[in-house]
Amino acid sequence: MTTHRRVLVLGGARSGKSRTALELAEASSETRILIATAQGFDDEMRARIAHHRSERDPSWKTVEAPLALVAAIRANAGPGRIVLVDCLTLWLSNLIMNERDSGREIDALINVLTGIAGPVILVSNEVGQGIVPTTALGRSFRDQQGRLNQRIAEACDAVVFIAAGCPVLLKPAPPLDLRLG
After folding, report:
1. How confident is the model over 55-99, as pLDDT tens digits?
2. Residue 149 region, left (φ>0) first, then alpha (ψ -120 to 50), else beta?
3. What pLDDT score does 2 carry?
4. Is the dihedral of CA 169, 175, 178, 180 positive or negative?
5. Nearest Cα to 117, choosing from 171, 87, 156, 81?
6. What is the pTM of this model?
7. SS3 35
8. Ordered alpha helix ranges (H), 56-135
9. Residue 180 has what pLDDT?
10. In the prediction, which pLDDT does 69 show?
11. Distances (CA, A) of 142 to 30, 65, 70, 105
12. Which residues are catalytic?
């Protein structure tokens, strides 16, 4: 894997972010642990979960943590292990739907990420580049997801954006030169 301890893999729906995150983790000789946040409430979501499972080889240990993400990271991250969290978007949705204090949970996530010894790869959706949601709940979710992504990106050593299966390194990046002319 890379020398980065914390990596955010960000992109739109079906952009290839989970596949890219798996490839990053599988390039490591570490023990691989997937922390899954999805819940199979309907047939379509169960099919998505099954598809993601089929993409992983049997060496992966899977921990389901739709709400208790911080505890799952704390319990599973460490030397000799690589943790892949897939995904922060579903985790945030779970928090909101269960009326949990997402701000407090995000603070706790940032704290655990900055204090753990082993590498962590986090997958998240970039939801702010599409149409404006028509409902107040949709707009609130989009805004909270954008703030979550910014906070996680700040806490990570590297950020990779995926579009059409193509990774683009956002962080670390050279400083911007905004001079005109």
Report:
1. 888 889 999 999 999 999 999 999 999 999 999 999 999 999 999
2. alpha
3. 40
4. negative
5. 81
6. 0.91
7. strand
8. 69-76, 88-97, 102-115
9. 63
10. 98
11. 34, 22, 22, 17
12. 52
Name the helix (H) or strand (E) containing 95.
helix 88-97
Structure-derived torsion over alpha carbons of residues 134, 135, 141, 145, reported in degrees to the nearest 10: 10
Cα separation, 165 vs 16, in Å, equals 5
Phi first, then psi, for residue 119 (nearest 5°) are -75, 145
Q: Which domains does the chain have, with CATH numbers?
A: 6-163 (3.40.50.300)
More confident residue, 133 or 180: 133
For the CA atoms of 116, 2, 79, 126, what is the dihedral angle to 10 degrees? 40
Mean pLDDT over the full length of the chain: 91
Report the 10 Å Cβ neighbour count for 80. Answer: 9
Paired tokens of 67: 């709400």
Q: 4: which DSSP letter?
A: -
Beta carbons of 7 and 160 less than 8 angstroms apart: yes
SS3 134: coil
